[in-house]
Specification:
5-stranded mixed β-sheet
Length: about 300
């Protein structure tokens, strides 16, 4: 049995899966906001509850909104700032009395979709998170690629490939200007809509209004599609993945899968573009499933 835990800003989700990926148990609890030790305790309690309910013990994989520094082993680049600089791996090892594997939540998403999701059968899969933030992960021949700096797939903090029709680049929380995340995240889409129309709207409201024929909403989504195509072309030009799987709230925009592939050829350095752009199979459960898949099958 494999146990996966996904630590998010507002919730912690835990699942147990069998060797075929079938879910044996699943539970979500609230994240103790801003409280590191309480978060460690909550994860330990959730694992214990999973094992009591299934009657089995299992390996434990953890997805976090950050990464472990290869040098210090401490958490870095975390949106949940209470985790930054903390020895999460060793503290969870002590609390659970076993070794745990920890990966970035976007890496877990990519691994899940490559293992038994939309990317099944593709030799290389780039998983993209388009949500409150923008991240990514890369899986090649079924193996998660982490890299020497533990930042593989962090395309959201590359500078957006701007064109002449774009306004001055907005600031990003990371301290840089004009990161891809500031354009392609949910808040980024809402910000652009406000700037261009003077209207406040959440991404799902923009999408619903566009579907009803609102010209301003449709125009901002068309611009978003062009932005996404330009940003994804950078990934394709460097990695040339067989498939790109979208995740996060904005992956629910069905029009992306029709419109963005048609725009890629204008930016990708190739006469044809065969990279598949796919919606996720497991949706918002991909992160926690990928955490469980961090452990390989037993020999």
């Amino acid at each position: 049995m494999r146990i996966g835990i996904d630590i998010g800003g507002t919730k912690i989700e835990g699942i147990a899966i069998d060797q075929n990926g079938q879910i044996l148990f699943r539970e979500r609890i609230s994240t103790p906001a801003g409280k590191y030790q309480a978060t460690v305790n909550a994860v330990a309690d959730l694992v214990a509850r999973i094992e009591r309910n299934t009657g089995e013990s299992g390996s434990v994989g953890i997805g976090i909104p950050g990464a472990l520094s290869p040098d210090s082993g401490l958490v870095k680049n975390a949106n949940s700032t209470c985790l930054i600089g903390k020895p999460l791996a060793s503290d969870l090892r002590d609390a659970l009395r076993r070794t745990v594997r920890i990966a970035n939540d976007a890496d877990c998403f990519a691994l899940s979709e490559a293992t038994d999701g939309a990317g099944t059968g593709y030799s290389s899969v780039f998983g993209v998170i388009l949500g409150t933030g923008v991240g990514g992960g890369l899986v090649i021949n079924g193996a998660l690629v982490t890299g020497p700096n533990a930042i593989t797939g962090e395309w959201g903090h590359n500078t957006f490939p701007a064109s002449d029709d774009d306004a001055p680049p907005p600031p990003c929380y990371c301290g840089r200007m004009g990161c891809i995340e500031t354009y392609l995240s949910g808040p980024g889409l809402s910000r652009q809509f406000l700037t261009e129309t003077g209207r406040h709207a959440r991404p799902e409201e923009i999408a619903a209004a566009a579907a009803q024929g609102d010209p301003q909403c449709n125009a901002i989504l068309e611009k978003y599609e062009h932005h996404l195509a330009r940003a994804l072309s950078m990934v394709i030009n460097i990695v040339d993945p067989s498939a790109i799987v979208l995740g996060g709230g904005l992956s629910n925009l069905g029009r992306l899968y029709d419109n963005v592939p048609k725009l890629l050829s204008g930016h990708v350095f190739s006469d044809t573009v065969h990279t598949a752009l796919l919606p996720p199979v497991h949706g918002d459960s991909s992160g926690v499933r990928g955490a469980a898949w961090l452990w390989p099958p037993p020999e």
